[in-house]
Amino acid sequence: MQPASWRVCVAPMIDVTDRHCRYFHRLLHPRARLYTEMLSTGAVLHGNAARHLAFDEAEHPVALQLGGSEPGDLARAARIGAEAGYDEINLNCGCPSDRVQRGAFGACLMASPSLVADCVRAMQDAVSVPVTVKHRLGLDYEDSYAFVRDFVGTLHEAGCRVFIVHARNAVLKGLSPKDNREIPPLRYDRAAQLKRDFPDSVFVLNGGIATVEQSRCHLETFDGVMLGRAAWHDPAVLTRLWLALEPDAREIDGDAVVTAMAAYAARRVAEGTPMRLVLRSMLDWSLGRPGARRWRQRLSDAQSLAANDPGLLLAAWEELKAASRAQEQ
Hints:
Elements: E1 8-10, H1 19-28, E2 33-35, E3 39-40, H2 41-46, H3 49-53, E4 62-67, H4 71-84, E5 88-93, H5 98-102, H6 113-126, E6 131-135, E7 138-139, H7 145-157, E8 162-166, E9 169-170, H8 177-180, H9 188-197, E10 202-206, H10 212-218, E11 224-227, H11 229-233, H12 236-245, H13 254-270, H14 275-279, H15 292-300, H16 302-305, H17 311-328
Parallel strand pairs: 1-2, 1-11, 2-4, 3-4, 4-5, 5-6, 6-8, 7-9, 8-10, 10-11
Helix pairs in contact: 4-6, 6-7, 13-17, 15-17
């Protein structure tokens, strides 16, 4: 286990980090660790596992995030994920949504550390890749550091050595998932104390990180940073992180990114995937550039997308470059 493997991560986000988004993000940062959307054990064990778990080889390193609370089911789902080629199996102990709570997993699992430890052991017995946990600092308005310290300590005793800490509490009643990403205060000091108390473990910080400057600052304390919505709303931040934090990094060629995405889109369309799903993660790549509005319009126009022609992306890119040249003149 190399801590540097978690230096820059893109958070698992439901309805966001599908395989198409991850492929695009890989083009923008050659080494970022990418995470799937959370998949329930039911979806893996009883759904269309081949479709749910499909990914491109270019995505490595890529982690599968599972949601569940039954050790046996999690072990079986983890084994299926590892056999599919995932580099890590991550257990979700941080999602506060009502739907997840009804399934008795996600953030509410933090109230049952012994059960989570049993889940971790079962998954570790089933796979050889790292089994990791993503969690919050606490539940509702619990303000005791001892709560999260004991939670992590219980998992540490079970053999877990990689913790992704969303540095906020999860409020299970009264706040939406969006509110839970914004209203509970960030407590980076609590997350840093975990790193000091468990020095042999990898700690990745999540929550409120959106810039190179913030990432650089947090990497002085933590082994890694995990960006969530920032990577969706401003994908180019991944390239800025690549260039700023990797000493051997080279510029990412925009032409090469678009050519690769067009070829990728052609492959997915041939399999029956609508173009709109492939390109939606690219809408805000143009953020702050001349012609950004036109780029978004082109890549979100339902009538144009219905043709499922990857040439749409190439044409939109040429328009974006032309707008940049026109402003420079």
